[in-house]
Amino acid sequence: MRLRRATSLAAALFALGFGQELWWRYVPEYLRSLGASAFAVGVFGTLRDLLDAAYAYPGGIASDRLGTRRALVLFGSLTVAGYAVYALGGSVVAIFAGLLLVMAWPSLGLPATFAVIGEELQGASRIRGFTAQAVVKRIPILIAPPLGGLLLERRGFAGGMHLGFVISILIAIPTLVFLSRALKTEDAAPPPPRPGGAAPRLHSSLRQLLIADCLVRLCEGLPDVFLVVWALEVVKVTPVQFGFLTSILMGTAILSYAPAAALAGRVEKKPFVLLTYVFFTAFPLAVVLSRSFAGLAAAYCVGGLREIGEPARKALIVDLADARARGRTVGLYYGIRGFAVAGAAAIGGALWTVRPSLTFTVAAALGLAGTAWAAMFLPSRPRTEEVVA
Fold first, then answer.
1. What is the extent of the structural domain holding 279?
2. What total number of domains does the chain contain?
3. 2 Cβ contact partners less than 8 Å away, ≥ 6 residues apart
């Protein structure tokens, strides 16, 4: 990957991620402070997941047809507009409406990021590329949430969230200007058309990975928006403490990436995929058993280890994608997965109204099912020549 292209994308991922992570993980509790019910919070999570799914394939098409620079600057601009809706609003309706725009950068831009790494790197280098991408995206999650929690404690939930929205806008605008200028030469000429306008077909092994991934992401999605609610309302930690829990999770994830990626580049990817699924399954159980900050800290270490096989899993997706349409293939994969799990947060909200702990135990059962599916049906060494468009 050209150094300028890589560093520009990394800088944009870091800056935009830092601005959003100041407040993003507190949105469910912010909705509660605005009067939203637990079910409404679940619906918010479901809408987020639906948008994540709906945006994935169009994002892949845009990446293939417009080029990385045009696509990413467009998606980033839409997200900034969403921040403005949040900053100018202050109601449950504004939070739901703004989400339509806020999700543009992380969801529409995902296939473009995958395509860049897939085109420029091969073999073990591809895993290292995804490792670097993952670390750059997660460092802001390591440092921003505690700062966001401090804003909330000092200015109150409404005032702290509003200030966070404004900070996100002030960071994002110059970042997008920088990204557009840094990548300008890439799109100086119109990008060559990609063959085949129809949706690509998925490799048989990629379909097995997708089924397992859907089950495991249901495990993640059921309790996801309720993690902050559990921590603040059940365990009674402070917003700053919750921010540190997020830092513990991301710090553990970052520390796990390099050794796991190094090993995965030398041996099969499947064991690392299975290992990450095991930790996905264990995390909700660890959270629901926690009744103190120390207990939650241990649980969030388990949560951080969910990322141990993520570079290998992403590299496997790209390995099995049609090289002539990587953006569309990745978009199709994440679109299907997104729609399959889109109702998870609403289901989690319904389970929460019955008994909060039920949300977490059902999630763990789904994670166990996904892990078992991958163990039984995902080949250890998939044959990439089976890929067809």
1. 3-183+215-380
2. 1
3. 120
